[in-house]
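Sequence in, structure out. First:
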Amino acid sequence: MVRLIAISLLVCATSYAQAAEDSDLAREAMKRGEILPLSRILSIAEQVTGGRMMDLELDRHGGRYVYDLKMIDTKGQMIELKLDASNGRILELETDD
């Protein structure tokens, strides 16, 4: 039991450290003008889907930053969205049927 708790704590600490590192990278990219502020990205995603954010990741694809968002609309439908982080352009939009 103690071993399971120790492993769980290690996984949580690693996840937290990765999230903090990702946040720092995003902040620096925004300062350099490489990506839009998260508030602008969320505004675009909410306008397009009519929903609210459930999950968000900032990845690098083919030399550019891409926001991967999971949104949920007012009917409870999940919508996955990929936005170009530099200009907010929709790269992909997928709904769960």
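Second:
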Amino acid sequence: MSRGKVLRGLVTVMGYVCVAIGLFHVLLGNAAIPGEGSAGPTIDSLGRFFGAAFAGYGLAWLWAARQSPIPATAVRWLAGVFLLGAIGRVLSLAVHGWPHWFQVALAVVELVLAPLLLLLAGAEERAGAEERAEAEEGTESEKKKEEARAREAGA
């Protein structure tokens, strides 16, 4: 499987998963946060607001997935935001201690997936540039062959 196909798959999955998680938080509020079902109305309001923002973040991933080629700059920005979220989790761990195990698992996924997305970000753009270069080489080669034939025919 090519890097471009892996990138397209990951970007698409990121989009759908982030939209689903965001909507889950909007609909369930505190109940969507493992171990925090009774955190109170302020945290519930905050969680629902951030859920909507996360759903929007997922829509940005889906927008990128629908482009051809997938824009490397968009993937880098979106992956950078994802990595910043993971760093926030690590900072929270350092300041407040270990969270619910599910939050730790999410941090691991984020710390692995963000760099992978950054690594793959330009895969489709690079592949497209290589295809265009090969096509131009082929066109140049064909032009030279035609010129040689024309010279032979005129000689």
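Remark: The helical segments are 3-28, 41-65, 72-96, 101-120, 123-154.
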